[in-house]
Amino acid sequence: MADERRFRGPIDLHTHSRVSDGTESPAELMRAAAVAGLGTVALTDHDSTAGWADAASAVAETGVTLIPGMELSTRVEFASVHMLGYLFDPENQALTAESERIRSGRLRRAEEMVRRISEDYDITWADVLAQSVEGATVGRPHIADALVARGLAPDRSAAFAGILHWRGGYYQPHYAPDPLTGVRLIREAGGVPVLAHPGTGGRGRVIPEERLARLADAGLFGLEIDHRENTPDGKERLHELAVRYGLAITGSSDYHGSGKPNRLGENTTSPEVLEAIIEEATGAAPFFAS
Ligand code: AMP
Ligand code: FE
Ligand code: FE
Ligand code: ZN
């Protein structure tokens, strides 16, 4: 039986720091989690584990339990599919090599997008670098911040709705493996994979059932159903699929600091589900605040 006392307070399993496209350092994020009254938080930067140590350093001080994780970029044709991975071995060779490959692909892609945008707007690659810390997983949010700094957009969301939109005329895809590879890489590294925000396109655009069946066979653990960007009918469909394939249900904020309106703890995961994640994981352990 799950020992619910292990997790004092709400559990939020999806957050971003400056190591990717959040706006706080990992330790600052842990402090924000304590202020928000959370008991447990997972740090899930895009394609990077570089924030784990800094976040772990704030566990004792904040009393917030840390679940180390990552949001791995995968894709099916032109649609990007995000795969959360929890408690995997951060030194696993195959997974670190793939994450590095994605990060460098993202960097080339961001440079190419900026090159194209700069033909029409006054923006340079140096502007984007000024908006990201060394080694960060660079994405459209950093280009958005550069556009905002140049006065070319009022905020990130406006930049995403305009210049950075996939139909905005400047969009470029970046390298990413397919979701099945993502699930296998995370499992082989001893981690537990959960499909991130799979219902943002509504019922009709939820993952095709045969594809989900293959992911479940390969070890997919759960679906992040409680997420603000999943639509009501998308969630309904996902609940049907979760029951059919025996998948766990998670809920999370996908907090990005001031980079997105998502608030820490706005969606949460049950202690029983977190306990099951910890039980299945063999790659890393949570950082408990004793
Ligand atoms: P990319 O992976 O570089 O294509 O950029 C997508 C990332 O931007 C995702 O991780 C989102 O969290 C973030 N994002 C998407 N839409 C918005 C928005 N409207 N405002 C801020 N961030 C966004
Ligand atoms: Fe993000
Ligand atoms: Fe995501
Ligand atoms: Zn995310």
Describe, in plain words, how this protein is organized in 3D:
The chain has 290 residues and is an alpha/beta fold. It has a domain at 106-168: DNA polymerase, domain 1, CATH 1.10.150.650. It has 11 helices and 7 strands. The longest helix is centred in the middle third of the chain and has 25 residues, at 93-117. The two termini are 21 Å apart. The mean pLDDT is 97.
Give short descriptive properties of this protein.
290 residues; binds fe (iii) ion; DNA polymerase, domain 1; binds zinc ion; 11 helices; binds adenosine monophosphate; alpha/beta; globular
Q: How does the major sheet shape up?
A: 7 strands, mixed
Q: Enumerate the strands of the largest sheet in spatial order, edge to edge or round the barrel.
A: 1-2-3-4-5-6-7
Order of helices and strands: EHEHHEEHHHHHEHEHEH
| Gap from first CA to last CA | 21 Å
Bound molecules: adenosine monophosphate, fe (iii) ion, zinc ion
CATH top level of the domain at 106-168?
Mainly Alpha
Number of alpha- plus pi-helical segments: 11
The share of residues in extended strands comes to: 5-15%
Beta-strand segment tally:
7
CATH topology of the domain at 106-168: DNA polymerase, domain 1
Mean pLDDT, nearest integer?
Answer: 97
Instruction: Give the overall form.
Output: globular
CATH architecture grouping of the domain at 106-168: Orthogonal Bundle
Instruction: Indicate the percent of residues in helices.
Output: 25-40%
In angstroms, what is the radius of gyration?
18 Å
